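Entry 14. Ran structure prediction on the chain below.
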Amino acid sequence: MNSSTYILLFLLIFLIVHERRNKEWNVVKHRKNKAEVKDMIELAKRFVGKECLIYLFGGNQITGVIQEVSDSAILVENKGMTDAVNLEFVTRIREYPRKKNGKKKALILE
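Output, C-alpha cells:
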C-alpha cells in the first residue's frame, strides 16, 4: 500500500470518530429542556449532604458530597475542594455504594 492509501484510511477513521463526538454533544443541546432540568433539580435535592456519584455526558463522573442545589448547578465537595456542576450535563446521580459493614466499595461496576 502506498502512502496515499494510508492517508485516506486515516482521514476516514478520523471523520467517523469526529462524527460520534458531535452526536454526543448534540444530545446536550436537547437536554436544555426546562422541564427536564427542573426534574433534575428536584431529584438532586434528595441527595444533599450525602456522598454521591454524579454521572455526566461523555462518560465522566464526579464523586463527592452534594452541598447545595441551585436553579442550574450543584455544589459538590470532595477532599476539601468544591466543584460546581451544571445540571444540564448531569445524566444520573446515585448514592455511593457501600458494603454490608458500611465501608465504601473499592470497585464499582456498571
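Strands lie at 51-56, 61-69, 73-78, 81-86, 90-95. Will compare against last week's run tomorrow.
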